[in-house]
Write a structure and sequence with these properties.
mainly beta; 3-stranded antiparallel β-sheet; two-stranded antiparallel ribbon; about 0% helix
Length: about 45
Amino acid sequence: MQAYCMKCRAKREMKNPRAIVMKNRRPATQGVCPVCGTKMFRIGR
């Protein structure tokens, strides 16, 4: 899954994506940027 990396300022393929549920019960996906190692986050399935 692709997400926007805030540090690299580019869309990248997420490493180690995992499905999470936010506090407001919306689904999201959290992973790591393969280039810089920053957390990436994408709202939705």
